[in-house]
Amino acid sequence: MKLIIGTVLFGLSYGINKTTKISFKETTKILNTAQKNNIELLDSAPLYGNSEKIIGKQNNSQFKIVTKTPHLNTKEITKKELSILTDTFKNSLKNLNQKNIYGLLIHNTDDLFSKNGYLLLETLQQLKKEKLVEKIGVSVYTPKQIKKY
Known about the structure:
By secondary structure, the protein is α/β, with parallel strands linked by helices. It has helices at about 10, 25-35, 50-55, 80-95, 120-130, 145-149, and strands at about 5, 40-45, 65-70, 100-105, 135-140. Strands 1-2-3-4-5 form a five-stranded parallel sheet, covered by helices on one side.
């Protein structure tokens, strides 16, 4: 069985109880425990407050990191949105203190259904070709999105 550590609470209060975000000291303990137990995947996103910066300040070289794109929330994908995607991704690399990462996901599947949404996947494929990311994909939240995709 593979486990992945979700890092949203590293960077902001989140969840059903709106738990206070986790302290830097506690994130260190979590990551050390994960490493000792052969948990190698971290899930993050720019949307998760400063979680990527916190991960970047940790000894994270042993982890495979997955991050996500911003929600573009537009009816049409243009050069502007593609620039936002690549700029945000490069900022994530900087915050994570990484030259490349394991995975990059389209965070909001609906962005793909915008006019020219296929350009988002082409951009992810280009980042993969440049060896900035190993795996690309899509976050889905409903069976309807899976069927539509």
